[in-house]
Amino acid sequence: MGPGVYKEAVVVAGDDYVIEGAGLSTIIDGTTVGTAMTSAGDYNQFVNLTFRSTAGAGNDYHGFNTTGDYNKITGCNVINADSDGFVNGAGYWNQYLNCYVATCDRNCFASYQTGVSFVACTATAGSPINLSSGSTFMVVGCRVLSGGTGITTTQSGGLFVGNLTDGSQTLNSNTAAGNHVY
User: Fold this and answer.
1) CA 65 to CA 58: how far, in whole Å?
2) What predicted TM-score, i.e. pTM, was given to this entire model?
3) Which residue, 158, 155, 142, 20, is CA-closest to 85?
4) What single DSSP character describes residue 148?
């Protein structure tokens, strides 16, 4: 996708797509219609895209939602989300690499399923990283710059390594090493 603002809620329902943008110059704006982008398919890749959404008619919309499996989201940004920034809503084994959230009203990064990986991601607003269900997840080398709850999970079976937060870390009974709260 070339530079520009695309005002639509996009759903990628197929498998094995690669959608690449120009970083902050390629904005998918779900406006008041819905989540900016949803990956409902499997094995898709999303690279260098920016998402935003605005609530409408009392509905909260995410920046990016994954409901498919084995997707890879790399170098993507959420500059505004009226709900979660990046949410792993129903998909298994998805990877979020070097992603950034500027503003959101709920969780910058959230997962409600098994096997999600957040690697080298940065959260600056809302409740930064929340893993509220599922297991076998990884949060590695992430930065939380917003205070608040930092990194939170009530589940076990996760790995947390080398994360830097200015808030708390509630890691339950997980493997954790080299994490720092400043």
Assistant:
1) 19
2) 0.89
3) 142
4) T
